[in-house]
Amino acid sequence: MSRFANAFGPHRPEATYVAHAFPEQTLDTGEVSMNYAVAGSPDKPALLLIPGQSESWWGYEQAMPLLAEHFQAFAVDLRGQGRSTRTPRRYTLDNMGNDLVRFVDGAIGRPAIVSGLSSGGVLAAWLSAYAKPGQVRGAHYEDPPLFASEVNPACGPSLRQSVGSMFALWSKYLGDQWSIGDWEGMVAAAPRELPAWLAALLSAMAGPEPAQNLKEYDPEWARAFWSGTVAASCDHASLLTSVKVPVLLTHHFRRVDEATGQLLGALSDVQAARVCALLASAGCDVDYQSFPTMGHSMHGQDPRLFADTLARWAATLPKPL
Hints:
Blueprint: H1 13-16, E1 24-28, E2 33-39, E3 46-50, H2 64-67, E4 72-76, H3 93-108, E5 112-117, H4 119-130, E6 136-142, H5 164-174, H6 183-193, H7 196-205, H8 212-215, H9 220-227, H10 236-240, E7 247-251, E8 254-256, E9 263-265, H11 269-281, E10 286-290, H12 298-301, H13 303-314
Parallel strand pairs: 3-4, 3-5, 5-6, 6-7, 7-10
Antiparallel strand pairs: 1-2, 2-4, 8-9
Helix pairs in contact: 3-4, 5-6, 5-9, 6-7
């Protein structure tokens, strides 16, 4: 058996989690116990922060004191990440989106601005389309892989032409709920099974044991994306034509390799343009801001720029009724 088989998750808290600067709380949604942290006072606008794939709430930890100057910020662990419940065979955009609908009702209790990174940005888009009327005031999509995280997208490179092979590797060698846990085998296989740029990225992350964020991550997420089941009932084009609130789209580093069609980054320029066009067709106000030298996570790389960008845009939103 592999050294890390079944080693991480809520059943092994002493091996999985570390302490953080903000106290953690939980909300029972009925199916999921959602873990979260809060910064800022309730007299400020509510902000829901949705982490990306393999990121727990504490990915926002450096940004939260800065955000607290402008918002009461709620950073969550999605199902299957951080301290929130693992839900085998239940990782879909619709399920995760409905978790967040219940979270806004149960923990925030008032209209909120939402901001999500990466697949969390796709969930911010889901909320901007399908949340209850009045729950969401506006949505920030932080470098979201709209279209690019689908197996058969309506336009541009697919998941199989971007980071998908990394997800396939995680699923194959780590297994659902860390059931395999072959970390050493995965690191050794990366140069054979990944494009060179992804193998280099994994090499930079690789150590004698998994990074903290991966310990808190259910690799079944990776399988759900690689197989396409995560978005099987929620194609991105239909989602975007259903958005009902103002949107801030921040688009970070991206490049398409002309020889291979591989996308380095979260979404291509063609895909970003299509996102904006579909939002405009739905009658939404769209603020597109390009940051071509910024890494995938602005809130992680430059928390001050993230907080300032979000606060400036949020100040333009209509006041809640």
